[in-house]
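Shipment paperwork, digital attachment
Item: protein structure file
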Amino acid sequence: MPHCIIEYAKPLEARLNPTELLNAVYEGASLSGLFEGPDIKIRAIAYEAFLTGAEKSAFIHVTARILNGRSLEQKQRLSSTVVKRLADLGLADISITVEIVEMESDSYAKYLT
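Attachment content:
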């Protein structure tokens, strides 16, 4: 945990490799001090069709799904470290957002083979 889902405007791929997004979010989650490296899971989805307000502006949105029980301060630390690492990529004319979503641990299921 966490599961970090990166959604981004596909035209950004002309300015950076999607692996850079994965690495930045991984580093941000790790720097939060809340998770061990092997527990951080990240995936990315590129969108070709999107509107940001009334425009077609570049965006990166990260949803970080974590098990419930973290304090507000911990959730704020996670979102701010992830935003900072993404901002450090130096992209111009972009909206970067992070949303922390709590998952109910009593109903979360996992199966590994």
